[in-house]
């Protein structure tokens, strides 16, 4: 189970999906374009000649650079699920959606032929169906937070860009809707565990251990320095705020093991207010340092929005942990979500 927990923070499986298929797509698009026909997702050839290797290559290597770019952007955004659930479960989701979507592709093409007399031989190639499948947990698990409004009516949220990239991918080909529908269906099967799909197709433990030994050295990088986290051209106040926020996270992570042991022994809630007093003081003080000594005056806890509590509970957190995290983060759902995910 080391692949499930030990590597989930660095998302090695997502990085593998970003690097290898993109590199192969570039090679087949520029220097080796004459070999493109060998890697086409041709259902007619697969069925007639039973070429399993063409099925695997056609559903792994993307032959269109635009589709490869859009799918890479989506995989990069969906890496949060690997960090949340672990690399082994994320890879199991990807494998299950890949297998079931291949079956649904064939069924949809046959149904389209018999119902509408439309024959489809070639479908868009690449890891497209599992990418569309990831929209299922993205829609149901990630909270929707409004960022701004356009023309005073259209809300722009933290999920709008991902949906726009998915729409671009959907409209890139005339038969991409078949891939999208099969991917969404397979994603719902796994996410809802219909027909016990999570117990039917999964990554074995020995494969997870081999992946851990293989991918950990490849994707292990040194922690960035405090100076590297600061954007160039930032003001001194922003630089100071970024450094202090990073120190807050480091202090939190260093105290989490002891905090968990105390919680298990006492059976009580996590006292988030112990770990983030400086963060709340900086936000309430508009990032201004007070040279005078702090006075021990009791402060009223901030009011917590029930809507934000509901969004955190939709992500799988308990109501009590959601309340504590929102109070500690001064009712900032993004910071509260980050704290809860890093537990």
Could you outline the blueprint of secondary structure elements for this entry?
Elements: H1 2-5, H2 12-29, E1 41-42, H3 43-49, H4 52-58, H5 65-77, H6 79-85, H7 87-116, E2 122-123, H8 128-133, H9 135-141, E3 146-150, E4 154-157, H10 160-170, H11 176-191, H12 197-200, H13 205-219, H14 236-266, H15 277-284, H16 306-314, H17 319-328, H18 333-341
Antiparallel strand pairs: 1-2, 3-4
Helix pairs in contact: 2-5, 5-10, 6-7, 7-11, 16-17, 17-18
The structural domain count equals 2
> According to CATH, what is the class of the largest domain?
Mainly Alpha
CATH-level-2 architecture of the largest domain: Up-down Bundle
The count of strands amounts to: 4
Poorly predicted tracts of residues: 1-8, 223-234, 274-298
Structural class designation: mainly alpha
How is the main sheet built?
Answer: 2 strands, antiparallel
Alpha-carbon Rg, integer: 24 Å
Q: What would the CATH topology of the largest domain be? A: Rhomboid-like fold
| Coarse shape | globular
Average pLDDT, all residues: 78
Number of helices: 18
Strand content is under 5%
Please provide the ordered H/E string of secondary-structure elements. HHEHHHHHEHHEEHHHHHHHHH
Helix share bin? 55-70%
- Which strands sit side by side, in order, in the main sheet? 1-2
Distance between the termini: 18 Å
GO cellular component, one term: membrane
Region (Disordered): 282-304
Membrane topology: Multi-pass membrane protein
Protein name: Ubiquitin-associated domain-containing protein 2-like
């Amino acid at each position: 189970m080391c692949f499930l927990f030990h590597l989930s923070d660095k998302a090695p499986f997502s990085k593998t999906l970003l690097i290898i298929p993109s590199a192969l797509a570039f090679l087949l698009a520029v220097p080796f374009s004459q070999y493109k026909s060998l890697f086409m997702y041709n259902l007619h050839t697969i069925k007639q000649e039973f070429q399993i290797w063409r099925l695997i290559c056609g559903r792994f290597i993307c032959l269109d650079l635009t589709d490869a770019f859009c799918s890479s952007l989506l995989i990069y955004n969906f890496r949060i699920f690997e960090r949340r659930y672990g690399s082994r479960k994320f890879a199991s989701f990807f494998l299950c959606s890949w297998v079931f979507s291949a079956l649904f592709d064939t069924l949809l093409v046959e149904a389209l032929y018999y119902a509408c007399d439309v024959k489809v031989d070639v479908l868009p190639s690449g890891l497209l169906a599992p990418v569309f499948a990831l929209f299922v947990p993205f829609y149901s698990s990630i909270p929707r937070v409004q960022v701004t409004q356009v023309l005073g009516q259209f809300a722009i949220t933290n999920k709008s860009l991902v949906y726009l990239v998915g729409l671009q991918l959907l409209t890139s080909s005339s038969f991409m809707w078949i891939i999208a529908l099969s991917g969404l269906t397979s994603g719902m099967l796994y996410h809802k565990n219909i027909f016990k799909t999570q117990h039917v197709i999964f990554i074995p433990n020995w494969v997870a251990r081999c992946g851990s030994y293989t991918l950990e050295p490849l994707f292990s990088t040194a922690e960035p320095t405090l100076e590297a986290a600061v954007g160039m051209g930032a003001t001194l106040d922003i630089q100071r705020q970024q450094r202090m926020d990073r120190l807050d996270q480091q202090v939190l992570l260093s105290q989490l093991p002891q905090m968990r042991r105390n919680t298990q022994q006492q059976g009580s809630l996590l006292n988030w207010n112990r770990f983030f007093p400086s963060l709340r003081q900086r936000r309430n003080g508009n990032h201004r340092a007070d040279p005078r000594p702090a006075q021990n005056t009791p402060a009223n806890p901030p009011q917590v929005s029930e809507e934000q509590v509901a969004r955190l509970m939709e992500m799988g957190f308990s109501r009590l942990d959601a309340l504590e995290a929102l109070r500690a983060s001064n009712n900032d759902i993004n910071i509260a979500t980050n704290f809860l995910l890093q537990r």
